[in-house]
Every structure is written in structure tokens, then in C-alpha cells.
Amino acid sequence: MPTIKNRTELLFLYEIENTNPNGDPLNENRPRFDSEENKVLVSDVRLKRTIRDYWFEYKGYNGENGNDIFVRETKYEKGGLNDAKERAKAFSEKKEVVLEKCIDIRVFGGVLPLKNDSLTFTGPTQFQMGKSLHPVEVVTEQGTGAFASTAGKGQATFRTEYKIPYAVIGFNGIINEKAAQYTLMSEEDKKLLTEGIWEGTKNLISRSKFGQNPLLLLSITYKEPFYIGGLRQRLKLKAIDKSDLQIRSLTDFSLALDDLIDELKSYQGKIDNIEIKLDRRLQLTYQGNLLSLQNGKVTLNAIS
Amino acid sequence: MRSAKALIFTISGEYAHFRKFNTTSSPLTYPIPTPPALSGMLGAILGIERELAPGKFPDGTIPVNEVFDVTNACFGIQILKPIKKVNIGFNLLDTDKSASSYFNISNRTQIEFEMLKDVYFRVYLFHKDELVFNELEKCLINKKHHFTPYLGISQCTANLEYEDTIEANELHNNPGNFVNVITALKLNRLYEEKPINFDQNTSYATETMPIVMTRDRIIREYSEIIIEQNGKPINANIRSYWSISDFGNISFL
Fold first, then answer.
1. Angle value at C-alpha B173, between B169 and B177, nearest 5 degrees
2. Chain A residues closer than 8 Å to B104 by CB
3. What is the rounded distance in angstroms from the CA atom of residue A166 to the CA atom of residue A134?
């Protein structure tokens, strides 16, 4: 399959409600938090895991029919380590086979310590750390567990959870067509990537991630090897009749796209096309006016 | 008096990590990109391929370390936003045991990375090879980057903005005469007796940084560097420096 030809820049926004979007393993699994700006952080690998899980669960990248995910969790496996050796054998320890089968290596790159063929692929797709568009606070919740600490005890254990009441989180991403020539990322892979970002975020059924909802996915395809960079930083979230910390739903804020749209306009000549996927409840504004939806699509007349 | 063309551009990003050579499992970062890191970043823009293995390059590739070798290129680095460091714990794959652990991940390892936050640097670049210089200038002006440039690790993608191409002049300085220099300073470029006129209200830091790296990833030169962490000029008794109008006095690493 031919590899992708154009550079693409991504902006992805999603909302979380009463969840822990990404626990910090070195901080009692509290949400990753930037205490300088009071914003919640989500690591790039969390988003990649979301996408991988979606490919695995819903798109048949589960080792059958020559489609696989390279960076797999043991939870998927029945037999444990024996399977690992078999999987290694199935790839015949060759990079060509890994690249042909494993969509995640084609899209995100990876380090392959194969017996006869060790290689480092910088992923064509890079996401920066995700960050909330507004200050948030972390709440601590105590709950009772369903299990006792030892058998026969009458009381269940207590647990502590840390949650964010509400946040809109944004990710910047870039897909580099030159790096794609090395990992053989195709247009089809790109489609599965954007689908995975959107649907994967929706379909995470882990208890701590329930309440995630994708809001906006902007995919800008360029004619030239060019990208604007820092799309999330150009958005301005404005709370409506509330303080930033009181935002609890989509009706509590609007998102000013002025900087973003102006930037897109100034580089119009370099842009091949823009695809946008959107939760229609999201209130987007440009020059103080609400952008309208027509047939489920934003009319980008404001842009052209 | 020598003069040369300086290519001036800025680098910025939300996070960055330029790993110190002496830290492995708890990676610390330099406050500024090292010259080998900058060479790699510019190599990415030009589309110079990385090595397949240490010292092994694809056919026809001149390694970035040689394209931006000290005999060809000089870097000056100015801090434009105060240096901020934060620690972020990452959940990495534990691939310690054997290659087959890659195929089935059961263990994770938590590593705390020291990261730079909200970085903003200005780079002054001299390059002897006019072809490379002009090509870089063209790429920077048009934001035409071959590979995606990043700040030390690949998820920290970088924003690069072209600023100017200006003729710079080298000026020699006498011992005992202090000059304001806006870039990070290599201590061995200063006169030994009272090298710096320290200002009580600023915050200095020194680092031992790799300056010259060979194609085999062997460091040929480490140097002690002094920076002012908020980006203020350093009043230094320097042997010689380069003056660039509208910008200031700079020195190379």
C-alpha cells in the first residue's frame, strides 16, 4: 500500500467528567497535574494506548489475518509468556514482517530489538502532552472496596480516588510523511488513526475513564511539508457566567477560534484540505459570533 | 576583524528534555539544548537520516555530527524565557528481561523525567558551507521541515521561527574589560582572572555539557557552560565575542 504523501496536523479535544484522565504512577495515581497553571495533563502514551486498544478490540488488529498490535498488554493473552515467544516467532524476528503486520509501529514508530535486526523508528505520528484548556482542581474521594483485606473479616477495605470534576483536554499532533516512508504508514492507517482517536476515546470502558467524550478533531492536510504548530495553544476557552473552576459541562463555556482561524487563513495557500469532526453541542465562536452547523458540518465560510 | 553571516531563529515548545550524559535511569535535563542536540534538530529539518546503529549510516548520508562539526558550524544559544524544570513520571515499558518481553508486555517501569517547561531559545548559527546555510535559511523561512523537529524527545515537538540573517563582526576584548553577552557562555572563552562580574540579583548556573560529538556518538569535547537562568545578559571578561546589531553580543558554544 502506498505510504501517506502529505503532512497532516491534528488537534483533538475531549471532555472528561468526574474521572481521572491519566494517573501519575509516581504520585499515588493522582491525575497528572501542572501545579503552576493548575491544569490537568495527559501523557501522549495514554492517547496512543486508547488508540491501540480501539484497533485491537474493534478493528481486528489482534494477531489474526496478519493484523496486529506490537505493543500489547498481557491482559490480552491467554497463555502468558509462551505466547510471547510464539508471537516473536510469528514475526520471524524481521522488521519487514513487523512493519507489514503491526499498525502501531507504522503509525507511532518503535524500537525493535529483534535478534538479527535491531531498529529504531521515529514515529510519523507524534502527539505532544495533552493539557486542559482551563484550570481545574483535583478532588479526593473515599470509597469502600468490595473486598476485605483478609478472609473472614467483616469489614471491607477503604480506597482513595482522585478525580477531576470536569475538564476539556486538548492534544496537538503531527503526522510526518517523510518518516512514514520508513515505517510504511498508509492513508488507510491514517484513517484508522483518526477513527481510533475519536471512537477509542468514546469506547474506553475502564471505570476511571468512563465519562470521556470526544469533542473536536481537526485534521489539516498540507500541500507542502509544512505545519503551523501549537494549535491547542491558539484556542481560548471562555467560561459563561462562571469561574473556570466551576465549568461542569459544554453549556458552561465557549471556545474562541479566532487565533486558529486567522492562522489557517494566513497559510491558506499551503493547506490542501481540512477535515473536522465535532460534537454539535460545542459552542465555537469566531469574532464574537457563534459558528453555525449545517448538515452536521461547520461551515468554514468564515475561513475562506 | 572577522565577519560572518549569522542565521538567527527561535526554538520553542511546551516541554523539552535534553538528557544529561551522566544520568540514565532518572534522567535529568540540561537547561539549554546542547550543540549535538541542535545539530540533530537541524539535521531533521534538512532531512539528514539518522544512523541505523551507532556509527552505521544509510548509504550516502553524511552524519549530522559532521555536517555541523565545530570546524563547519558554531552555535550561540540565548535564553528568552526563564528556565523552568518540572518532574513528570512516565510509565515506560519494562524491556529489561529479553527481547521477547517486547512482544508481550507484563511489566511497566515508572521513570521520573526532569523536563524543561515552556522553553524559548534563540539560536545564532554560523556555517561555513554556504549550501547548507542557504538551504537551512530557506527551510526555516518557509517552515519547510523534512522530519518533525523535536526538543530532545520525540513527543516534545518544536516550533521554529526564522528571525533574521545578519552579518556579525568578531571583536577582541582586553583583560579587565567587561562586556554584556546575551548567550550561554563557555567558561574557557573568558579571561581567568575575575571572569564574570556577578550581579547579585540574577541567578547563574553552570553545567558541564557535551560540545562535540563524533559519528560514533563519542564525545570529543565537554565544556563548562555558564547561563543566566532568566535570560539576562552576563557581564563577562571575555577574550573575544561577536557583535550583532539589533540583537547584542554573542558567544559560541
1. 135
2. 72, 74, 77, 80-81, 83-84, 87
3. 10
Which one, of B143, B156, B145, lies nearest residue B27 by Cα? Answer: B156
Q: What is the DSSP string of A135-179?
A: ----EEEEEEEEEESSTT-SSEEEEEEEEEEEEEEEEEEEE-HHH
Q: What is the mean pLDDT of residues B103-120?
A: 82
175-234 in chain A: CB under 8 A from chain B: 176, 178-179, 224-227, 229-230, 233
Confidence bin at A81 (pLDDT 50/70/90): very low
Residues in chain B closer than 8 A to A43 (CB atoms): 88, 90-91
Cell of B196: 564574570
Q: ipTM score here?
A: 0.84
CA distance B6 to B81: 22
Could you tell me how many residues make up chain B? 253
- Predicted pLDDT at B78: 95
Q: Work out the pLDDT band at A170, boundaries 50, 70, 90.
A: very high
- The Cα-based distances of A99 to A126, A180, A186, A214, A282 in angstroms read 18, 11, 11, 29, 38
Q: What is the pTM of this model?
A: 0.88
- C-beta atoms of A113 and B102 within 8 A: yes
Biggest CA–CA distance in chain B, Å, is 64
Contacts of A174 in chain B (CB under 8 A): 148, 157
